[in-house]
Amino acid sequence: MRSLSLLDHSCVSLEHIPSSEGRSFIVHDPETSTIYAAFEDNEATIHIMATGLSPVDPLAFSLLGHIPYDPKQSPLGAIVDFTFLSDLQVACLVTREGDIILVSKERFERGEEVLENVGTVDAGVHAMTWSPDQDLVILVTGEKNVLVMTQDFDTITEYPLHVQEQGEGVQQSVGWGKKETQFHGSAGKEAALQKVDASKFSLSEDDDQRPRIAWRGDGSLFTISDIDPLKDARVIRIYNREGVLQNTSEPVDCLEHVLDWRPSGNLIVSSQRLPHRHDIVFLEKNGLRHGEFTLRETTQHRLLQVSWNADSSVLAVWIEALVPATGKMQKSVQFWTSGNYYWYMKQSIVLAQGADVVGFAWDVESPLRAYVVSSLGHYHCLNYAWDILGSTSVEEDNAGYIAVMDGASVLLTPFSHQNIPPPMCALKQPTSGNVRHVSFGPNSAGTQMAVLTTERIQLFELPANARGPVTTFASLLFPSVDANTSSYGHSPIRHLQWMEERQLAYLQYNEEKAVDMLCIATFVAEDENSLTVVATSMETRIGRLYYNVSNKDLMVQNITGTVYEVHLHEDHKATLQEVQQFPDFCPWMATTCLGTKETNVERIVIGLTERSKLYANDRLLSAKCTSFSLRSDWLVFSTTSHAARFLPLSVSFDDFKLSDNTPDANDESYRRLERGAKIVAATQLKPNLILQMPRGNLETISPRAFVLAAICEDIKNVNYRSAFIACRRNRIDLNILFDENPQQFFDAIERFVEQVSEVDYLNLFLSNLRNEDTTLTMYRKSNRTVVTEKETGLEKKVNSICEAVRNVLLKLSRKDYIQSILSTYVRSSPPDLESALILLAEIKETSTTEAEDALKYTIFLCDADSLYDVALGMYNFSLVLMVAQQAQKDPREYLPFLQELHNLEKYYQRFRIDDYLKRYEKALKNLSCTGDDRFQELVEYMRKHSLYLPALSVYANRPPQKQIILNVYGEYLTQSNAYSEAGIVYTMANNLEKALQAYCMDGSWRECFSLAKQMKHSNEYLHDLAYNLIEFMKEKRRFQEAATIANDYAKDVEEAVDCLLKGSLWQEAARVAHTYDRADLIETHVKPGLIEGYSQTDEEMDDMTAQFNKQRLRLKELREIKPEPTVAMPNDDSLDNVDMFSDTTSMYSQFTRYTKASSCVSTISSVGSNKTRKTSKLRKREERKRARGKKGTVFEEEYIVNSLKRLCEKANSMQNDLHNLLRALAPFGYVEEARTIQNKFEHFLKEMVDAIPSIFVPLHLATSQFASQEEVEESTAPVQIDKPVMTDIQWKLQIL
């Protein structure tokens, strides 16, 4: 769908006029941008000229030298080849007489001799071509020998051109794929029997009898075309770089002299002149034919040359044809490209004033730059670009026409209405001459088309949907050239724009001023000679003229990237106002507006450079853009990473940029594309994006960004039907119809049902509802944030919508919308199946058929077994039978059960049903209604399903049964080890003996003694009970309570003191001993207990000190031998993807966790063996290894830090205990012991506090070998271990 547009044109006059009979040569020095030209004049002289020598005008040509020649020896031209040699910085010219001449611009600047004859081929030179790397040169001499020479013209080999051998690569037939077995199409099987007689093949009448040489782009092969005297026909031979013949072309009748090899290497191009047509034919490197296309010339003509451009995208056909208007032959150049196996003529170079193209060449670096020399003595430089020719209107009525130039026709397709794959089209509009440019008119529908041809400007009116006739609005001849316009009037028109109904704008190059002229042309449609032009000098060279139909912006951009807005006055004179400066020239540009009507609208200029940089004003949007297009609300562009990116135009310029976040699955601004796809157009009427693949086929997609924007606009306008259809067509979640504006949806619920009135549509909408806000999840916009359901009240969304829709449907017609009404019940959360069945039961009373149909639909929506269970739970057997029948359940499964239920008493029947449905509480209640005869069954049922609380609720006012239930409940709690609650339940049941046992087992000694007294047990029993509870309390380390029991109930002071000493309650033990006048216990129990406590504390402190010192030293050693976390260990790329590592190879070492660089092998290994190793057993084993922290493992550092943390916490908790011990030691005379242990603990505590900052630093924790990718990525960052908090407690005694 791309066309070639002429971007830039410049023209320079030559001092001498070339001969129209000979060929002029143009070569380019890419380093200095110097242009060399060599041509013959009518006086038998070769002139060599170059640019860059004049200090006044660097673009002017200066004469380097001239060479006379004998016209008798060179009747068809004296120059054989002219090439610039980059390594030598000279131009090499070869004449037909055999002279090889080097032309040096540097010697000219130094005033030395410019021309140097380095040698002469005595037999003359008929063809010569340098290899692409310019290391070799191939010559065909007058004796038809081939010379292979070096850059210094040393002969490598020489061999005859015409030989009988076919070459080393000739294919040998082994009988497969014979022609007789091939498909011959409409020619039928008889074609297989026809034999081709190559001896009857002849030469073309237009053959110039000269040999031709062409190299493949990589320089490994070259080909020579010449007339073989043995066959009297032209033959193409293919040689390798060493000059060894590889293949010879198959016989081709009337094969002509033109020859070139596509730089990409797949095709050799030549021509074939048949009686009824003239073909450009292609051959493969093996010499076999590979397709062709036919030239479209209908008059007398002949081919001069064919030439591929640098990137193999365009084939230039240099042709001489008869012009019917003048009756003379004129030389011109045609540009051909292919797509989908069809060849388009994209452009033609036909010079004004009937001048011939006597010289043509492509630029060696810029693929779409061409150089031309005219027979009037002018040099032209033409820069082209690939353009998508469409209307710039962004209004909804834009038909989306895209025009494709193809010779004397314009191929048109309105993509807003249809997509027709090229080379087909919706409309094919013939024109008066070959098309040079197409633009669309000022109407917003994009149905007015202006076509620039080689002869005139034609204006057409197109049908909006490509159905109907095309009317010609005007056909205008080019304006006549007078003395005032002679400097630019003959220059080719480019960038034609149709701005107003009677106004055009275009550019022409002014040769005298070396600037471009902006021409504003007015016309009268009925008069072809009415074109009146007012030209304004741009004072610079312009690379792009752009007109925006919607915004009425007329912009020009010069070749340095400066953008100007053009203001037209009443006299059609133009003034320029600079509006933007791109960092580089952008061949593709557009204007649009940012913001909305509610905000300030700001105009911006979008530009795309040849190096894939997309700019908005001077801001770089993307450095890898390949194409872009504008809609009224979006900018969309494709990238070299095969993705489409979407930027909304409703934002401010500050926010008009790509997000830094990585696109996720719900990002509407990102979409993957097929490799190499480019944007053709973004239609305005429909949310469609047209893409063209590299092979030429088209694809229409509906990007989520476009679709969601259209849906939101429809919802805003309360056009729910259009929004619903768009969601359904593009698979957009229907929840957005509500989520976009919930309050509006409820307010317009009746309108919603009225617009989406089809039952199937309503059912589809209801069935897709869920408690989720899709505008915050699936279709999240950049200015929204995700919030939780509780914050937005989404848990009631589905129920609210279902209820609202149901109320509307019930008002309209229950009969017509019964399916949708049932859907509202089923889709409720949780499903309200019981209400649905109640509705079905009501319908069944009036019409069984309608009830059955409705039931079938309900079964379709939900699980049939669930519906059967709900019907059974309603105790409606007729409804149960209907559901079972419609669900096609096996009667043998449900009929016996229903029959059994039918024979039971009412409440027992319901009990059985509820038990079957596992509604145990309801079953218990129904069982309680059957009477006391089934109470024992109820108790067993209660015990089976643990229904103690519901049973107590049912029998709350029936004491006998309640007491039984409480006793059973107490047994359950006792078995569950809930002794305290069991004691309470037994007490409620007045079963004090079991209550006492439960309290004893729980250790609730207060309740035990209260019940024992209440039950009036003897003192001996209380004494035994006391000692039993004392032992229980000691086991539970509840020493304070044990001492209380010993004092109050056992009356054993010695036992009380002993319990207090075991609990380190030193002062309390002394107090009790003195209270009961047992001073002897001080010597026998308290002091020995103090000494024992002192000894244990001293030993514990020694152990803690030893552990602390040992682990601290080991931690220091570990951190000294490991590398710094910020220093990545070197990654040896040579170890990546090496076969010596198997899938189960373990390369995990002590230092693996410290490296930032990761080997691809270890990654592949872990992924490849992930499934075999990732087991629960190995995970637990690894966790045990981590917990042990064995020395030398990767877990050791983490283990030591955690161990030291626990040690610090233990020391912190010891402060209170040590304080109590010190207060007890000093009064009893153990001052030295108290001082010793206080100093020891103080020293240990200070050492520990000082070491905490160096111990607890951020750690690089070892990653589990079974960790997920996310866990591995998270583990690369250091983890801060929480430092232990040391409480500041006054634990020391100052007297010590």
- Tally of extended strands? 55
| Gyration radius from CA atoms, angstroms | 49 Å
* Structural class designation: alpha+beta
Kindly report the average pLDDT value: 85
Helix content: 25-40%
| Uncertain residue ranges | 783-791, 1124-1174
Biggest β-sheet strands, sense, barrel: 4 strands, antiparallel
Order of adjacent strands in the largest pleated sheet? 1-28-27-26
What share of residues are in beta strands?
A: 25-35%
Shape: elongated
> Helical segment tally?
35
> Could you tell me how far the N terminus lies from the C terminus, measured between alpha carbons in angstroms?
99 Å
List keywords for this structure.
single chain; 1296 residues; alpha+beta; four-stranded antiparallel sheet
Can you describe this structure in just a few lines?
The protein has 1296 residues and is of the alpha+beta class. 32% of the residues lie in helices and 27% in strands.
Describe this structure in words.
With 1296 residues, the chain is α+β, with helices and mostly antiparallel strands. A hairpin with a 2-residue loop joins strand 24 and strand 25 (342-349). Helix 12 (833-846) runs antiparallel to helix 13, helix 17 (906-916) packs antiparallel against helix 18 and helix 23 packs antiparallel against helix 24 (1005-1014). The protein is elongated. Mean pLDDT is 85; it is low at 783-791 and 1124-1174.
Q: What does the secondary structure layout of this molecule look like, with pairings?
A:
Blueprint: E1 3-13, E2 25-29, E3 34-40, E4 45-51, E5 61-68, E6 79-85, E7 90-95, E8 99-103, H1 105-109, E9 115-120, E10 125-130, E11 136-141, E12 145-150, E13 155-160, H2 190-193, E14 212-215, E15 221-228, E16 233-240, E17 245-248, E18 260-261, E19 268-273, E20 278-283, E21 289-294, E22 301-308, E23 315-323, E24 328-339, E25 342-349, E26 357-362, E27 369-374, E28 378-387, E29 389-390, E30 401-406, E31 409-414, E32 427-430, E33 435-440, E34 448-453, E35 456-461, E36 471-477, E37 494-500, E38 503-510, E39 515-522, E40 532-537, E41 542-548, E42 553-558, E43 562-568, E44 574-581, E45 588-594, E46 602-608, E47 614-616, E48 619-622, E49 625-630, E50 634-639, E51 643-648, E52 670-672, E53 678-682, E54 689-692, E55 698-701, H3 704-716, H4 720-730, H5 736-739, H6 742-747, H7 749-755, H8 759-767, H9 789-792, H10 797-812, H11 818-826, H12 833-846, H13 848-861, H14 864-873, H15 877-886, H16 891-902, H17 906-916, H18 920-928, H19 935-945, H20 948-954, H21 959-975, H22 979-988, H23 992-1002, H24 1005-1014, H25 1019-1035, ...
